[in-house]
Structures are given as structure tokens and as C-alpha cells.
Write a structure and sequence with these properties.
single chain; mainly alpha; about 75% helix
């Protein structure tokens, strides 16, 4: 009896009632059109409201213009499938990247003091590296990035780019370290001590 009740609610896609609901939302275009439109509308409206180009002193005078512009940008962005495809590529990867950062933070939290600025700088570097990987792997689905475009160039020259960045990082560390010769500690030792 329990198995009959369970199977009655279990969908063919898997996941039960929530799986059915998400599948229906996908078929209705919620993930391809509604959510990308809301995200673009909210970002454009928020930016226009914050910079207050069309408003007076309190910012409410240009609210109608901001809404019209945000609506136009939101609808124009969805005219072709570029935004929907990009959002379907980047946000699952973003979720994976955030999960990796969270796991690293939890594991490091077991062994280090969170007030130590050196480790937090290292975590920032790891998070930025994950962000770059998420963006470039999401852009990999577009033809202008792969093939003979920038993706090919980056794939061919990645070692040179990393070498130049490491060299610039060492150069900046040496310059910053030479300016602060008041203490005998190195920049790395200062960062690790916090």
C-alpha cells in the first residue's frame, strides 16, 4: 500500500510532486523567459533608480521612465535565445562554484582562525579563480568564444598568461615589500599572521 501511494505521486521524470512542478514550469517557459526577464528588469531598474538619471531630488519623478526602459531592455534581451541559453549555462555552473567555495570555507574553518587575513585573502583568490572558470566554461557554449575565436587563443596561450600574471604578482609583492621596510617581516609573513 505504501509503494502504491508513493508511485502515484512519483513522476516519470523523477522527483515526485516537486519534480512534476518544475517540469511543468520548464514547459511553460518560466526558466527560459520569465525568470531571465525578471532578473534583467530588476537589474536595469535598480541601476537606473540608483544613478537617478531621469529623476529629481528624491528620485521618484523618473520612476515611470525607469520602468519603461527596464521593460524594454528586458523584452529586447529575450527577443532571441541568447540570454536564455547563457542563463541556462551560467547559473548551474555558478551553483557548483558556490558549493565548492562553501565546502572549502567549511573545511578551512576547522583548521584556521577566521580572523587571519592571509587565509581570507587566499579564499578570495580561490573564489575569483572559480568565478573565472565559471564564466569561461559558460562562454564555451558560444561559437564566438570557441573555434578560431578567443577560446582558441586562450587555450593556446594560457601558460603564457599565467606566467605573466605570476610575474606581475611577484613584482607587485616586491615593490610593496620594499616600501615597508620598517619591519623585518616579509609581506607573506604579514599576510599569514593577519
Amino acid at each position: 500500500m505504501i509503494s502504491e501511494t508513493f508511485l502515484a505521486f512519483y513522476s516519470s521524470v523523477g522527483g515526485g510532486a516537486i519534480g512534476n512542478m518544475l517540469f511543468q514550469w520548464e514547459q511553460a517557459g518560466v526558466f527560459s523567459y520569465v525568470l531571465p526577464f525578471l532578473l534583467i528588469f530588476a537589474l536595469v531598474f535598480g541601476i537606473l533608480s540608483k544613478i537617478n538619471i531621469f529623476g529629481g531630488k528624491n528620485g521618484n519623478e523618473g520612476k515611470g521612465i525607469n520602468i519603461v526602459i527596464a521593460l524594454a531592455v528586458g523584452f529586447l534581451a529575450l527577443q532571441f535565445n541568447f540570454v536564455s541559453i547563457f542563463f541556462s549555462e551560467i547559473f548551474p555552473r555558478l551553483g557548483i562554484g558556490l558549493s565548492i567555495v562553501l565546502v572549502v570555507l567549511i573545511l578551512l574553518g576547522l583548521f584556521i582562525n577566521p580572523k587571519n587575513k592571509g587565509w581570507m585573502g587566499g579564499m578570495t583568490a580561490i573564489a575569483l579563480l572559480i568565478a573565472v572558470v565559471v564564466v569561461f566554461s559558460s562562454l564555451d557554449s558560444y561559437s564566438w568564444y570557441t573555434g578560431s575565436g578567443i577560446g582558441y587563443w586562450l587555450g593556446y596561450n594560457w601558460a603564457t598568461i599565467v606566467g605573466v600574471l605570476v610575474f606581475l604578482g611577484l613584482l607587485i609583492t616586491i615593490i610593496v615589500g620594499s616600501k615597508s621596510q620598517k619591519e623585518d617581516k616579509s609581506v607573506l609573513a604579514k599576510m599569514l599572521e593577519g
